[in-house]
Amino acid sequence: MTFKGLFSKTKNISRTEAISLINKENAVCVDIRSRDEFRKGHIIDSINLTPSEIKSNNIAELEKYKSQPVIVVSPSGIEGAKPAESLIKLGFEKVFILKDGLSGWSGENLPLAKGKK
Question: Per-residue pLDDT tens for 17-38?
Answer without folding.
Answer: 999 999 999 999 999 999 999 9
